[in-house]
Amino acid sequence: MEKQIDTTPAFFFEQQTNFIYNCEKQGKSLNTLKNYKTDLNCFNNFLIDNGWEPNKKSLTNSLIRHYAHFLDQKYSSDNSRRRRLQTLRNFFDFLLSQGEVPNNPVRSIPTSPKFLDIPKPTSFKNLKKFWNHLLEEIDQSKDLQKLIAFRNLMTTLLIFKGGLKVSDLSCLKKSHIFLGKKPRVMVTPPKRDPFSIPLPSIFNDFANKYLDLLKIEMTKQNLEFEEILFNANPYKILSGGLSPRGLEIIFKEYSEKLKIELTPRSLRQACIFNWLKDKNEESIKEWMGVAPSYSLKTFKEHLSKHIYSDFFH
After folding, report:
1. Which of 13, 47, 71, 286 lies 20 to 30 A from 226 at CA?
2. CA–CA gap between residue 227 and residue 28 (Å, rounded)
């Protein structure tokens, strides 16, 4: 006999809110949270359109299969179908972890294969405009505001020259940065061995200045923390570390202020294009944190369109 999940609409929608809140506490990015809400609304609308009355109702495996079929008809993109089922799977895993449901019916549905999207990196023109703006901010500010501007510059370097993701940056410690003749940054993923990524020699100068300013401000505010980044308001440092969502908000604000296309993701894609100029694929995949079987085909196909010259000074 097919297992069933008995619930009510009010309970179901309330748990979706709890799921989003839980993901936010875990530091999920702003874009991820937005996608989760969109995907859950897609499922909610499907249920309403199929007569899910506001009373006790069973969500069965067959209903979930019907939803998967609905996605097949509605979306031509495999990635769109895959993402919406994955979000629903994550939501039911959350319910399962809370002891609210006996099983996850979405687990019975195979996901669509994941296809690589066409990369949309930050353009060289926009990147240079952004970099020059950061230098101006540093030059024209002082004290904490100068430190915040330096933090944003360091973040930019670690993404564009080190390929770090916001999840890597959020927990990056000062001890993970190695300066000298061959500067490197060590990444410590939770589910794989640590690895290091080379950085350009110019990183030394910026890092030393930033760390000196950070030390002065931490001493002034009587603070101690190991993270290389920090969360702050205009008046004081609030804590060590900076969440993925916080990092995305910073780049969004710059994007709106300068009227350019700029996100951590697009900046990281620019880094990958830059690596492909003179680095071997095996090393690039290691630095990206992906499997050796991962395909860089879409990047190589568009390589000639995205050339990045060195302009850091």
Report:
1. 286
2. 18
* Residues whose CB is less than 8 angstroms from the CB of residue 65 and which lie 6 or more positions away in sequence, other chains included: 108, 109
CA dist., res. 313 & res. 311, Å (int)? 6
At residue 105's C-alpha, the angle toward residues 99 and 108, to 5°, is: 135
Tokens coding 273? 């294009």
Residue whose tokens read 């500010």: 141
Q: Say if residues 181 and 198 touch (Cβ distance below 8 Å).
A: no
Rg of the chain (C-alpha set): 23
Q: Is residue 181 over pLDDT 50?
A: yes
Query: For the chain, give me the number of helices (H) and strands (E)?
Result: 12, 7
- Percent helix, strand and coil across the chain, each rounded to 5? 60, 10, 35
Question: In sequence order, which residues have a C-beta less than 8 Å from that of residue 157 and are 6 or more positions away?
Answer: 199, 203, 206, 312
User: What is the per-residue pLDDT across 249-288, written as a single tens digit (0 to 9) for each?
Assistant: 999 999 999 999 999 999 999 999 999 988 889 999 999 9
Q: What is the pLDDT of residue 8?
A: 59
Q: How far is CA 174 from the centre of its chain?
A: 21
Residue 54 predicted with pLDDT over 50: no
pLDDT > 70: percent of the chain: 90
User: How far is it, in rounded angstroms, from Cα 120 to Cα 293?
Assistant: 22
Chain mean position to CA 13:
26
60 vs 246, which has greater pLDDT? 246
The domains of the chain, with CATH numbers, are 4-108 (1.10.150.130), 124-305 (1.10.443.10)
pLDDT average, residue stretch 17-27: 90
**Distance, CA of 300 to chain centre:** 23
Is residue 209 within 8 A of residue 150, CB to CB? The reply is: yes
Across 214-226, average pLDDT = 96
- For the segment 20-49, the average pLDDT, to the nearest whole number, is 89
Give the pTM: 0.68
